[in-house]
Amino acid sequence: MAISPDPDAALMLRVKAGDFAAFEELVNKYKQPVMNLAYRTLRDSTEAEDLAQHVFLQVFKSAHRYEVAAKFSTWLFTIARNLCLNEIRRRSRHPADSLDEPAFEDDDQPRRQVPDTRNFTPPDSLLQSELADKIEEALASLPEKQRTAILLCRGEEHSYEEIAEILSCSVSATKSLIHRGRETLKELLKPYLRSGLWQEEPEKQAKQL
């Protein structure tokens, strides 16, 4: 059975050939998901945006040696995760420093706070804010691999195989990471899952995180 071509990989091949419009198309598609992953890892919206710019700068610099060996998104999020881990290690050595200035500016896009908010019912802004904070706290408390696996499974709908490649582990280990992470989230968020804010059963709601 033939493998369906990856349109994003095709765009990246155009970038390799010098097509800057193709690069802009990839940035527009993936900038927010990359920032979301960076935010959940670094817990700082400004640094998340800066790191996303570093990710795409690295993508552009690496274009000349790009080869289609996996989905473009798998390659992209591998770069993003590696830069996040580098930043975590850098923070441990130099806690007072911040990331370098952005390598390029996207003037057409306003600076945004990440992650994107959801619409909850009932529309009680205080409860919504508290719930969003608890979700972020719960995600932040997970080990990095569990958190990244859950976010990739949910946000970008990567397959287990793709997540395993990004995390450099086996498929069975990836499934275990996702399962353990969801179970932990269910326990941490149980008081809110039982409240009137979320009507769905805890397991189903946790899988949406």
What is the secondary structure topology, with strand pairs?
Elements: H1 7-16, H2 20-42, H3 45-61, H4 72-93, H5 125-141, H6 144-155, H7 160-167, H8 171-193, H9 202-207
Helix pairs in contact: 1-2, 2-3, 2-4, 2-6, 3-4, 4-7, 5-8, 6-7, 6-8, 7-8
Oligomerization status of the protein chains: single chain
Overall morphology: globular
**DSSP E strands, number:** 0
CATH homologous superfamily assignment of the largest domain: RNA polymerase sigma factor, region 2, helix turn helix motif
User: How much of the polypeptide forms β-strand, as a percent range?
Assistant: under 5%
Tell me the series of helices and strands, N- to C-terminal.
HHHHHHHHH
Helices, by number, come to 9
Would you identify the CATH architecture of the largest domain? Orthogonal Bundle
State the helicity in percent bands: 55-70%
Through-space gap between termini: 33 Å
Radius of gyration: 18 Å
**Quick check: average pLDDT?**
78
Question: What is the number of domains?
Answer: 2
Q: Classify the fold: give the CATH topology of the largest domain.
A: Rna Polymerase Sigma Factor, Chain: A
SS class: mainly alpha
